[in-house]
Recover the amino acids of this structure.
């Protein structure tokens, strides 16, 4: 009997000890002890007290709650693990900040986007990843998050190497159970390539519109320049057709000379059209040292008819400094400058050519000086006019050719210019890179 009571007392002590561990400390009890509690018959060692049965029920209930809590905790840990794995493998960046705008979490994609590691970004203030203008924008955005506003917007961050990355952010505020702002979370997409493509498309659209506008103005200009000589040729041809048998030989020669002269003018305009098409089409061209003496000689040969007609005197330097450029285009520049100096210079024309090396930036300055009547400030302003303005502003005989000259010279980072005073002639200039540059 004593042995049985002893066993019963020991059994009760075990119950209280395990109950205390469960109720106070949240500890589990082994399946064996639970089985003893549930299956022990009343006759074995005497009936349980009412308190003991209540305790057993409480233990069982507590054990059930602990088991459920552990199951929920395990499920939460598993869910957190899966979500973290998902965040770390997302192609989109994820950025979380606290209420003070300090970084509490970024995924690897976000860190990669800015050229950092995750550890380098952790704890850093949001403003440390942007320039001053970005900080001002971010401050306004944070005020909106504090007011509970979620939105999508574009933003420009600074990478670790100082370059810029354009992003699309979808940001939302984070609040506690009482609705108080405690931070924000953002999904971040790198749209740098898209922005570059958009900018390239915008730039291309602007250039296309400018070219269309230029082409329209150029068409008007060419039509104007071709119409006059063509009308003259038609007029003289009609006279010859009607009276060729009765006209004296001198008149016949004069009329045919006029027709030929205007034919040459039209041919020159067509040459300029072809040249312009070439200059516009070529984006890059190989430059080489120019044999300027040979280039000028070629230009003179093309203008031999004009030089002879006006009995022009051409004065050349003893030597030419070496410049860099593209020979055929340089020839066109000289042809244009020389023809203008001959046509609009003095009577007879006296045209002096020269060059000065050692200009700013290692450039060489070439020039053509005539003995013409000179130009007023208003007339000078009309020279080298862009094609888009030639319809409104006409510099007689100069506009089209000089506009092409300007485009050619600027292809080589050079500049065109003119110096002139009324009664003192004019000096037309252009610059090309020298060998030193």
């Amino acid at each position: 009997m004593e042995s049985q009571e002893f066993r019963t007392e020991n059994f009760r002590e075990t119950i209280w000890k395990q109950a205390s561990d469960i109720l106070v400390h949240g500890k589990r009890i082994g399946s064996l002890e639970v089985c003893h509690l549930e299956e022990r018959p009343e006759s074995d060692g005497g009936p349980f007290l009412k308190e003991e049965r209540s305790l057993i029920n409480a233990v069982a209930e507590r054990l059930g709650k602990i088991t459920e809590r552990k199951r929920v905790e395990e499920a939460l840990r598993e869910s957190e693990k899966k979500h973290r794995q998902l965040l770390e493998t997302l192609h989109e960046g994820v950025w979380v900040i606290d209420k003070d705008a300090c970084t509490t979490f970024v995924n690897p994609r976000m860190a990669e986007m800015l050229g950092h590691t995750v550890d380098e970004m952790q704890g850093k203030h949001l403003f440390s990843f942007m320039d001053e203008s970005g900080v001002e924008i971010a401050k306004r955005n944070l005020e909106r998050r504090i007011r509970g506003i979620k939105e999508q917007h574009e933003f420009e961050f600074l990478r670790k190497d100082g370059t810029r990355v354009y992003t699309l952010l979808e940001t939302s505020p984070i609040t506690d159970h009482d609705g108080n702002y405690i931070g924000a979370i953002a999904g971040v997409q790198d749209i740098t390539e898209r922005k570059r493509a958009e900018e390239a498309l915008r730039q291309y659209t602007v250039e296309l519109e400018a070219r269309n506008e230029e082409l329209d103005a150029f068409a008007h200009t060419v039509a104007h320049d071709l119409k006059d000589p063509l009308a003259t040729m038609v007029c003289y041809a009609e006279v010859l057709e009607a009276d060729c048998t009765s006209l004296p030989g001198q008149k016949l020669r004069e009329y045919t000379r006029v027709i030929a002269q205007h034919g040459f003018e039209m041919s020159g305009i067509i040459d300029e059209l072809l040249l312009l098409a070439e200059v516009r089409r070529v984006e890059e061209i190989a430059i080489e040292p120019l044999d300027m003496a040979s280039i000028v000689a070629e230009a003179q040969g093309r203008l031999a008819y004009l030089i002879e007609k006006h009995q022009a005197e051409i004065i050349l330097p003893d030597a030419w400094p070496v410049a860099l450029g593209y020979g055929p285009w340089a020839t066109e520049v000289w042809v244009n400058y020389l023809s203008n100096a001959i046509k609009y210079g003095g009577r007879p024309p006296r045209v002096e050519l020269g060059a000065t090396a050692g200009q700013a930036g290692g450039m060489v300055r070439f020039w053509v000086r005539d003995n013409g009547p000179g130009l007023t400030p208003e007339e000078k302003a009309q020279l080298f006019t862009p094609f888009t303005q030639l319809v409104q502003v006409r510099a007689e005989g100069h506009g089209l050719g000089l506009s092409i000259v300007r485009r050619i010279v600027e292809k080589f980072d050079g500049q065109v210019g003119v110096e002139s005073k009324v009664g003192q002639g004019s000096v037309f200039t252009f610059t090309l890179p020298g060998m030193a540059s």
Q: What stands out?
A: The chain has 14 helices and twelve strands.
